[in-house]
């Protein structure tokens, strides 16, 4: 089979490998869609943000957002059959600790990440634990299924935890793919959504996805404009998706007193002023990272019932042979959300 490897230093190899075989409790999936995520760039450059010794050395097939068809089951697998359409849950846990038993496999102290620690979906086939292969409704395409987990799933879990609903004014900073997913989820939950970004083309897409108003933080004072749009009060909830320190600070500055801020965009270091930005506003500040595995049935029903146009978040589609071009363009930000497809 063909598979992608990322040895680091912005090198991409498409190699031939043996089709893997599923072990006990595992299934073999024929990949039909696998998305490139901004976190994959850490593998591309050789500085992985998660993963063990194998990550970033070109030993592991990337791709933590895959979907496809079950083509073989290993010993002891129940509940999955050949031909089942599935999407992959990226966190592989021990299934014994308190976090795994609570559904949050990504908090397991011994967790491994699909596409970082173990081979992921940027290949014609991948193997995963049966518990990580989540049933994909017929109403959702393979591409939608791939994006449903990391992006839409993260936003759904985050916004649900913050009680986003019809009475909420939600501001979203960063209109990349994750921010776009935040707009889709927020509108489906009934919120008034305000989108913030530096790029007019991304703000135009945010309007298409349902944003009620947009703010260009490059030409406007985003904090002042968001307060103006909310009658001087500030948004009830802010979801920060860019990971940029200025946006993170603006999120804390603009939100109303007793409001909530979720940091979703990855960031290694940011300087804030807790006294003025958090303590004296009595804010709730949380991290938004993936979703509990037992929430997937609810999440997939939500996507179907609200007819979420998830594929609208995809900017480019590639064949696996074009992986060098795909990663190069993604690294240069010539694409937003790119997906390998086998349609």
From TrEMBL:
Q: Which cofactor does it need?
A: Zn(2+)
Does the keyword section mention S-adenosyl-L-methionine? no
Q: SUPFAM superfamilies from the entry?
A: GroES-like, NAD(P)-binding Rossmann-fold domains
Which part of the chain is the Enoyl reductase (ER) domain? 8-340
Q: Which GO terms describe its molecular function?
A: oxidoreductase activity; zinc ion binding
Q: Which Pfam families match?
A: ADH_N, ADH_zinc_N
Keywords of this protein's UniProt record, alphabetized? Metal-binding, Oxidoreductase, Zinc
Q: Which family does it belong to?
A: Belongs to the zinc-containing alcohol dehydrogenase family.
- What protein name does the entry list? Zinc-binding dehydrogenase
């Amino acid at each position: 089979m063909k598979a992608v490897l990322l040895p680091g230093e912005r090198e991409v190899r498409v190699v031939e490998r043996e089709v893997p075989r599923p072990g006990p409790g595992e299934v073999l999936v024929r990949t039909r869609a696998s998305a490139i995520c901004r976190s994959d760039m850490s593998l591309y450059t050789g500085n992985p943000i998660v993963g063990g010794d194998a990550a970033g050395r070109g030993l592991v097939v990337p791709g933590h957002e895959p979907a496809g068809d079950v083509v073989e089951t290993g010993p002891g697998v129940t509940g999955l059959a050949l031909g089942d359409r599935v999407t992959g849950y990226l966190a592989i846990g021990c299934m014994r600790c308190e976090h795994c038993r609570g559904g949050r496999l990504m908090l397991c102290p011994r967790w491994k990440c699909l596409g970082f620690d173990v081979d992921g979906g940027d290949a014609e086939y991948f193997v995963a634990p049966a518990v990580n292969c989540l049933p994909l409704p017929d109403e959702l395409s393979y591409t939608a299924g791939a994006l449903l987990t990391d992006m839409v799933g993260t936003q759904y879990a985050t916004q649900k935890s913050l009680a986003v609903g019809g009475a909420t004014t939600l501001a979203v900073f960063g209109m990349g793919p994750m921010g776009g997913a935040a707009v889709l989820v927020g509108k489906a939950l009934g919120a008034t959504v305000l989108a913030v970004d530096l790029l007019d083309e991304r703000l135009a897409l945010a309007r298409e996805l349902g944003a009620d108003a947009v703010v260009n933080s490059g030409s406007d004072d985003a904090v002042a404009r968001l307060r103006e749009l909310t009658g001087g009060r500030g948004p009830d909830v802010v979801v920060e998706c860019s990971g940029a320190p200025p946006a993170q600070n603006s999120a804390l500055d603009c939100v109303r007193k007793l409001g909530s801020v979720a940091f979703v965009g990855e960031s290694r270091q940011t300087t804030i002023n807790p006294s003025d930005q958090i303590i004296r506003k009595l804010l709730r500040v949380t991290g938004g990272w993936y979703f509990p595995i037992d929430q997937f049935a609810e999440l997939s029903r939500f996507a179907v019932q609200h007819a979420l146009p998830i594929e609208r978040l995809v900017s480019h589609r590639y064949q696996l042979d074009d992986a060098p071009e795909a990663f190069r363009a993604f690294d240069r930000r010539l694409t937003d959300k790119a997906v390998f497809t086998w349609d």
